[in-house]
Amino acid sequence: MDKVIITAAVVGAEVMKEHNPHVPYTPDEIADEVARAHQAGASVAHIHARRSDGTPTQDRKIYQQIIEKIKERCDIIIQVSTGGAVGMSPAERIQPLELHPEMGTLTTGSVNFGEDIFANSFNDLKIFAQKFQEYRVKPECEIFEVGMISNALKLVKLGLLHPPLHFDFVMGVPGGIPATPKNLLHLVEQIPEGSTWTVAGIGRWQLPMAAHALLWGGHVRVGFEDNLFYEKGILATSNAQLVERVVRLAREIGRDIASPDEARKILHIQQS
Ligand code: KMH
Ligand code: ZN
Q1: Number of H helices and number of E strands within the chain?
Q2: How far is the CA of 225 from the centre of ligand 2 (A)?
Q3: Do residues 134 and 112 lie in contact, with contact meaning Cβ atoms separated by under 8 Å?
Q4: Which of 24, 64, 87, 201 registers the highest number of CB atoms within 10 A of its CB?
């Protein structure tokens, strides 16, 4: 099995300091969280931006500050969000790709998202995928529902995505695919041979989904975006704490941890 790539999703668009005081907002806070997660073993940082009051934004200038500050602190693969927050327009969401990060997320379909709808029409997907090509950014296909895999494969047929694909199975969002081992296995069975995959279990599903991925040759995403707790009723004190637990589990299971350069090779990221 490949070494395991740990992604730290340190902030997201929904969680607030009211939920966990350690959620970072400012570029410095985000970069500090990323640096600590990198130190703990993360090789990819999934980034969202916030205004100083914590509201989510896709403002390119704020992303630029975050990216610069992360680069001052560590060499981690920076993966920007193009999902942003529900209700944002595609034009708003696409902004951070213009900064030519190594990676970005691309959600390949629509899904109920709690009380809201995370809308991604197929036409928008084509526009997003074209931008990934134009800016030469490696996409991570965010899969909240099984039909999103078919959309990703349709984009391959249209020449807008290029194998080997990398998928992130986001499991346990209310309205999306439930986080069960059978569902994870089903998702893994749908993706083309040669693809890579990671799993982001939401809330209490983060740890069990991570454990399954470690056993089945997948990669793992943890962090405050998906889960604020270390265990039931006990808030995590940092993203690094969640990364450290995956590192311990991986080592017990016999999987080494990929460095950022090793992750670049596994994910076929072309280095400039
Ligand atoms: N905040 C969610 C609505 C992504 O980063 O690309 C979408 C999301 C996916 O977080
Ligand atoms: Zn995200």
Answers
A1: 9, 14
A2: 7
A3: no
A4: 201
